[in-house]
């Protein structure tokens, strides 16, 4: 068995791939294979890979017929690997001298499932310095012993250190990888490089301070390109995948506390991306093939109300154009309708009921008034949020006080049943 399978993912990297492959093939002191996955490059990358495959028997090239994204490209490499350990490298980056020997030697000597290390950043040109600093991939603290994976993860989080660093900064045992099903999520256009599942399933893990990797900062890379909505899709899907992984594990309260901090940060990152993209007006259809993750995204990230469809676009336009808006009702249905209004940026509404004697005086921070107190507001639009069984009693009241412009909101059948119980 070979010591290490090095998986190189390539997409339109003709300017950089020779240097990357040379830095790998010049490694000494360990036996390895180099699996290059060409993700349907449209430049000269494919020809360069073919050249290296012909001249060096350690190089194997996998050619994808269509561009499938980094996650799927990595999985193809994993499926063809035969080494005792697996290692990923991006096709525009470099390994330092004897990096593979150091990785394998440390991992083998300590019988590790997971080995982390550091990197030094370098820059394509002076302008690339705006993307980061030389020590961006160096941990602040030392972790000199063998840990259980969850214990090491918790300590990294506690120290504010790089617990979820790039996949290229880890080497991991292939049997451990397969046993725990650590393949990337197929179909995602962006690989988030999360290491959470690796840490929490590793029996033996270490992070050494050695800077074994050279990370290139350049214009147009995944790291430096403007954020895209597909990043948000991947982060939402992986959040749910990792939560499910955590649900199946049993850790100490101390470890769970640090994991909570990790998920808090991930949730904040997803929320920040959502805020960044919410104003561009495009329909978010990228989670259609992930229904459970779509539900999480809609309800917990976008905070989309349960009854978002209770208002038609025509009704919403009428509401937005109303000179005065009164929400009629202060019960369960009214609360749900108010959430829909506010989600659609409609905040300038008053709240009214038939009689105020038997209810709370406020509703979601607004004073509740009796409907007769609004008599004389001739151009008011009334949005009624009550069960239909009250219609025969409510409509005469509205007509009595001169309100004829009315929208009656009907929620789904289940809500009406709940409201009547």
Q: Overall pLDDT, averaged?
A: 87
The geometry reads as elongated
* Strand proportion: 15-25%
Give the distance, in angstroms, between the N- and C-terminal Cα atoms: 67 Å
- CA gyration radius, whole angstroms: 29 Å
Spell out the helices and strands N to C: EHEHEHEEHEEHEHHEHHHHEHEEEEHEH
Which ranges are low-confidence, i.e. pLDDT below 50, for 5 or more consecutive residues? 413-421
Q: For the report, how would you describe the main beta sheet?
A: 9 strands, mixed
Overall number of strands = 15
* Helical residue percent band: 25-40%
Oligomeric organization of the protein chains: single chain
Identify the notable features of this structure and list them briefly.
421 residues, alpha/beta, six-stranded mixed β-sheet, elongated, disordered C terminus
